[in-house]
User: Fold this.
Amino acid sequence: MLNAPHHIAVIPDGNRRWARQHYLPAFSGHAKGADALRGVLETAYDLHIKCFSVWGSSLANLIERNKEEVQFLEKIFQNYFRRLAKDRRIHEEQIRVRVLGEWETILGEAAKKSIRLVTRATERYNHLSLNFFIAYDGRVEMLAAVKRIVEQSRETQKLKITPELVKESLLTHELPPVDLLIRTGGEPHLSAGFMMWEIGESQLHFSEKYWPDFTGDDLKEAIKDFQKRERRLAK
Assistant:
């Protein structure tokens, strides 16, 4: 695909508002959002997007929301990643699945088991990359990176602080810069420093649609919009 984005990242906002719009509980919005993701990913695979990242949940969402909603989200993660581990296209397309964030300390054992299942099953794949951010906050990531660099400086007195060193210290050190960042839900803003280092040169696309209504065709439209733009990268 001509001038296709190498790395697309998505902030899938609007599950709860979609549910309210349809007079349904928040749980229904999250379930519908998981269904929407499957369709969008199929399109991403068809288009051979090299790297695709999805913000599954912020750290605040899993700490601050009510217990019942968080338990439902964990159940979605448990089922979703277990199915993903058996997904035919994941293995046919040799897609490596990564899950980044504080999920190891936040989620329950059942959800963590499913996540480990798919990440271990795909850890040797290197054709495409599918990345989920769960219990993630970009500010927490950056603070942790600073702490790592401080620790290194204690061991190496003449440590040189470079962009490469910062990159190596991040959770996202294996991921390329984001070319296109898509946010759904009709609110054109960023949240909690999402991938702040990687989106420094990103093109932004804001969709009015709530995430459960976002489709593979909408993804294609966002990519077409990206292809029309002239990117001016910092030198």
